[in-house]
Amino acid sequence: MKRRKFVKSAALLTSLSMMPDSMNASMLHFREKAKSSIKKSLGYGMIAGKYSLLDKFKMVKDIGFDGIEFNSPLEFPVSELIEAKEKTGIELPSTVNKDHWAKPLSHPNADVRQACIASVAQSLEETKMLGGDTVLVVPGVVNEHIPYEQAYNHALAAVRELIPKVEKTGVKIGLENVWGNFILSPIEARRFVDEINHPLIGWYFDIGNILRYGWPEHWIATLNKRIFKLHVKEFSRDIMNKKGLREGFQVELLEGDNNWPVIMRALNDIGYEGGWMTAEVDGGDKDRLKKISERMDRILSYVRIHSV
Question: How many other CB atoms are found less than 10 A from the CB of residue 195?
């Protein structure tokens, strides 16, 4: 264990041991409350192995996850997913639209934008049938062919065009911060959803993605109630600088630059109500997924401390 992490852990344990019994009892109360307030999910693509859909649901349940997030439009019949959900108790709280990269809402070609709008509309319908409440959508991409201001205006108009579908289904659109050279500050992210000004349009906040150019806790404080759901991953700026940009993601949860006690305090301070934290990291077999589940439990344990 690195010295900085050891000192932090030792100080925490010391402070807990010095608490009076009444405070310890209060801690236990908050522990149970926090345990049920944020559930753990993972992306379906993280589950390795040639198992049936139902067996994958059962395995995920056995190792401590509460939900699975699928890409949409779906590759499975809705009826099969609902059957697996009912037999295992695994929830399907959200989906990720899978067409927003190839056909971005910010594209200068109207036909491309309309194709993405139609795809997101289908995702909204499917998510409702699955009993979920949020569809993750990348709001836009900026590159040498798509100027920033043009992308902003096109994306804004496209999301507004989806509002009737959102209202019809009651399913939210969570816009995710990604490495698309677009919406690079929490102030701009807040402004974007405030210009749309609809209670079912907000942010699907990716904690790890921000570390390239900011700090998650700052974004959380600024976006506040606009955060609908959370993706969790790690990132190391040191590895990024030494080995390359995307190599920064090659680090386990709790071993990167996320300051989890501070991040979880920030979520507690805004009263995060999205109910879910979904892993978006390299998956694998049952043992690998169990380790991810256990590390997420450690992350969520910080809520218990900061709720006291």
Answer: 12
Task: Say how far apart CA 275 and CA 42 lie, in whole Å.
Answer: 14
pLDDT of 7 over the 90 cut: no
* pTM of model > 0.90: no
Residue 271 pLDDT > 70: yes
Q: What is the CA radius of gyration of the chain?
A: 20
Phi, psi of 120 (to 5 degrees): -65, -40
Longest distance between any two alpha carbons in the chain, whole Å: 65
Determine contact, residues 92/70, Cβ cutoff 8 Å: yes
* Per-residue confidence (pLDDT) for residue 56, from 0 to 100: 98
Q: Which residues contact 116 (CB under 8 A, 6 or more apart)?
A: 97, 99, 100, 103, 104, 105, 107, 158
Residue pLDDT, tens place only, 200-211? 999 999 999 999
- Cβ 173 vs Cβ 223: under 8 Å: no
**Of 112, 115, 133, nearest in space to 124 by CA:** 133
